[in-house]
Design brief:
Chain A has twelve helices and twelve strands. Chain A is of the alpha/beta class. In chain A, strand 1, helix 2 and strand 2 form a beta-alpha-beta unit. The longest helix of chain B is centred in the last third of the chain and has 38 residues.
């Protein structure tokens, strides 16, 4: 072996170990609430820091976020850990995943009461919604003046779209369910019609949205709230979502408490806090979704310009899970050509 | 003896990290969970995976030969910089490279704009050809470097002899170049084939639809969406089998060239004149353009956001550099031990060294998570685990780079060293390190840059505050911040390339490259 190199390697490793140990030492006297969430929740530009600061003011505790990939990765990680986990609360599963999450038996009833400002009534014993959005195709108004007003019009047009793969991304799965909910047995026909419009299928939301912004497609599957980001954060009013006559499918993001938590009271307090004004007011301009309970100050300026679908679709989670494989097969057969 | 014990220890670690993690995932799945048979969709994925990987490897290697030959026999201003540039595509984070390629070949890219301007119909990059194009962009430059090393490993005395014998270019090709290619190309092709076998995001994004499903995507789906661990383990086994087949085939086709040792004299390269000059010039110009254009686009996309990068980028960049340095030292040290052991005849170490290439990083990460989780909080180990995994995943590349020259070293100097009783530290100091300086520098550069870019595994372990630069890029993209993401990606590319160039140029300094 090359000894100086080895020594250098060992000292670098030691450095890394000390860095990770340094993160280990929390304030000893305070209880710690560990919240497993998706990657985009925790950075400076996400909702995480503001929510952490506001909650810690009230709880005399240490709120620790653990970022664990995307929504689907969170659930997979919980299943890997089983009951032997440090995690107290999971934040960021969505309605595509709640059936599987409930089936694990790892979650405890949330015990929260009160209503939510969702387009559809909410009932789930284990999960509390914290924000939501409608899926929609987003386009650039300056390049596409009259967007299609339905899936059928989109399929008949020669517009190019980018979508996400339902096998690796929750928006992709949402689109699959959207078509299934709106068209039922005709869904396969819609997909066959859309096949020549689809430029490509990306692994996740960010690749698809990136491709759209680069001009690779006329429209991209995203949310009705996406134009609000461009308007508010970039003062760019060129993006818009197309209103579809069939109605739009919902994505509701939820938070849940683990049955095995050693901080049940803190976890309950956090769930309640998350649907309070303090937390809900943060979400629209950090997560770019609608808050589950409209804060008393109302929605931020700019959200008023967004489209409001009249019909909202959401297949009940157990049913959605049951028809997923069939819908996937249909989708794959129609697009594989 | 110490070398052999070291090689055994490293082999044991590699086996644990590849088959051990796979076994752990399979064991956690338990008996009876899921099915143990592949469905028609899986077989379609296997077929597509094999086809795109084979085509990508074939084109990468075939296109690399004329470029490497031109670079080996021509001297021109900027040649060193061009060779360094060839390292760049291989080291780009996948999504950055894809966006760079699309800026050139996409619907709104340079190529289609030019075609539109000339009144020609646009061409679409999406489909099998797009996947192969992207893989060639990533891997052709790597193949050029591997083949170029082969050319440079032919002792200058052989070329002088050829000149003295008045060999025509055809004779040189027959007696010197073809035997060298026969020794080098199968190995290069198999490395690229196996890399492409693991492709997931590139294949899906440019493939244009679910027809472009690879086995790795099926593993992702099984692990993330279906939580079907037995299926994931089974698919990972299929990947191992495919890789084993490829490695076996390459071993059948590769023949050692047997040039013997030279005297390290720097000789004027054997450079055929006439039309061959123009062919070489064209090969170099085309390759440089093909590699540089998407890189320029990555740069142009990134510059506007550089001014307002979020501050978290800087500590993340520092963390990534430390991880890269630690991984590259570990990786190259281990690869050197294995390459020397193989050069002395223990060939099975070579198979072990290639194992990580065939490992699904998703399964590896999941297995490690299962191994660590009962004892420690996974987040507390995020950085050491990342170093270990990056070092492991980069090891096959370091090994491939070092092996041919380690074999040449053993064949040319092994007996002399033994006769002089040159052993241990002294052998390393006076024989191995000086003679392997160039490939060691290249290997350190490649593994360092690979470790900067890779994030396949960290996601499972990432905590709240240990984000690396690739993770930040991903987080920025996930929050609509494409301009900042492009700038952070440019920073990532710049740092990777700086690390690569530093080591690579360090290795080439004082050696005719």
């Amino acid at each position: 072996m090359n000894y100086p190199m080895l020594a250098a390697g060992i000292s670098v490793l030691a450095l890394l170990a000390t860095e990770s140990l340094a993160q280990e030492t929390p304030a000893q006297e305070k209880p710690v609430l560990t919240v497993l969430t998706y990657d985009s929740f925790v950075p400076d530009w996400g909702p995480g820091p503001a929510i952490k600061a506001a909650f810690e003011e009230t709880c005399a505790c240490d709120l620790r976020f653990v970022a664990g990939g995307d929504g689907a990765a969170l659930l997979a990680r919980l299943q890997l850990e089983g009951a032997n986990t440090d995690v107290d609360v999971v934040l960021g599963l969505d309605t595509n995943l709640t059936a599987a999450a409930n089936a694990t038996g790892l979650f405890a009833p949330h015990g929260q009461t009160g209503s939510f400002d969702l387009p559809l009534p909410w009932q789930d014993a284990n999960f509390v919604p914290f924000d939501w959005g409608w899926f929609a195709f987003v386009h650039d108004k300056t390049k596409l003046a009259t967007p299609p007003a339905s899936f059928e019009e989109l399929a008949a047009s020669d517009l190019k779209i980018v979508i996400q793969d339902p096998r690796s991304s929750t928006p992709g799965l949402g689109l699959l369910m959207w078509v299934k909910a709106a068209y039922g047995p005709e869904a396969a026909g819609i997909w066959e019609g859309l096949a020549d419009n689809i430029v490509t299928v990306s692994p996740g939301w960010s690749e698809a949205y990136g491709l759209f912004l680069e001009g690779e497609a006329d429209m991209v599957l995203s949310y009705t709230t996406s134009p609000a980001y461009h308007l508010i954060a970039e003062s760019d009013d060129t993006k818009a979502a197309a209103l579809f006559a069939e109605g739009h499918y919902l994505q509701i993001e939820v938070v849940g408490k683990l049955a095995a938590t050693d901080q049940p009271a803190l976890a309950d307090a956090f769930l309640a806090f998350l649907t309070s004004d303090a937390a809900q007011a943060v979400l629209p301009t950090t997560n770019w979704m609608y808050p589950a309970k409209t804060p008393s100050a109302g929605l931020p300026e700019g959200f008023g310009t967004l489209i409001t679908p009249e019909t909202s679709w959401l297949i009940p989670d157990a049913e959605a899970q049951a028809i997923r494989q069939e819908a996937l097969d249909e989708w794959q057969a129609a697009l594989a050509r | 003896m110490a070398g052999r014990i070291g090689a055994l220890a490293i082999a044991a670690i590699l086996l644990a990290l590849t088959f051990g993690t796979l076994a752990l995932v399979g064991w956690r799945a338990g008996a009876g969970a899921g099915g143990f048979a592949l469905g028609p969709a899986d077989w379609a994925a296997v077929r597509f995976t094999l086809m795109q990987a084979a085509l990508s490897a074939l084109f990468s290697v075939a296109l690399a030969v004329p470029v490497a030959r031109a670079l080996a026999r021509r001297r021109f201003a900027g040649r060193g910089a061009l060779i360094a540039l060839l390292g760049a595509p291989f080291l780009l984070p996948v999504i950055v490279a894809v966006l760079g390629l699309l800026a050139v070949f996409g619907r709104a890219g340079v190529l289609n704009s030019a075609l539109g301007w000339a009144g020609l119909p646009p061409v679409s990059i999406y489909g099998l050809h797009g996947v192969v194009l992207a893989h060639v962009f990533f891997n052709m430059p790597l193949a050029v470097r591997l083949v170029l090393h082969g050319w440079q490993a032919i002792p200058a005395e052989r070329f002088r002899l050829a000149a003295a014998l008045d060999f025509a270019p055809g004779d040189v090709a027959r007696h010197l170049e073809r035997p060298m290619l026969r020794a080098v190309l199968p190995g290069a092709a198999v490395v690229i084939f196996v890399i492409c076998l693991m492709s997931f995001a590139v294949a899906l994004t440019l493939g244009g639809g679910p027809g472009a499903t690879t086995v790795e995507l099926a593993i992702y789906q099984a692990l993330r969406f279906d939580f079907d661990l037995s299926r994931a383990a089974l698919l990972a086994l299929v990947q191992f089998a495919l890789c084993a087949l490829a490695v076996g085939l390459a071993a059948v086709f590769a023949l050692p060239a047997g040039f013997g040792a030279g005297l390290d004299r720097a000789a004027a390269p054997f450079a055929a004149g006439g039309w061959r000059r123009w062919v070489d010039g064209l090969a170099i110009a085309l390759a440089a353009g093909f590699v540089a254009l998407p890189l320029v686009m990555v740069g142009l996309r990134g510059v506007p956001g550089l001014a307002d990068l979020p501050p978290v980028v800087w500590p993340a960049a520092g963390r990534s550099v430390v991880i890269a340095l630690a991984s590259c030292l570990l990786s190259v040290g281990a690869a050197l031990v294995l390459a020397l052991a193989v050069a002395r005849g223990a060939r099975w170490f070579g198979l072990v060294a290639m194992l990580p290439l065939a490992a699904s990083s998703l399964v590896l990460g999941t297995g490690l998570f299962l191994a660590v989780h009962p004892f420690l909080r996974p987040e507390s180990l995020a950085l050491p685990v990342t170093v270990l995994v990056n070092a492991t995943l980069a090891l096959p590349f370091a090994y491939r780079i070092l092996l041919p020259e380690a074999q040449g070293l053993e064949a040319g100097f092994g007996r002399l060293a033994a006769a002089l009783d040159l052993r241990g530290w002294a052998r390393l100091r006076w024989l191995v390190l000086p003679r392997l300086r160039r490939p060691l520098g290249f290997a350190l550069g490649v593994t360092a840059a690979l470790s900067m870019g890779d994030l396949g595994v960290i996601v499972l372990f990432a905590g709240d505050s240990a984000a690396t630069l690739p993770l930040i890029v991903q987080q920025l993209m996930g929050a609509y911040r494409m301009t900042e993401a492009a700038a952070a990606a440019l920073l990532l590319v710049g740092l990777s390339f700086a690390l690569f160039a530093l080591f690579d140029l360090g290795g080439r300094r004082g050696v005719a490259a």
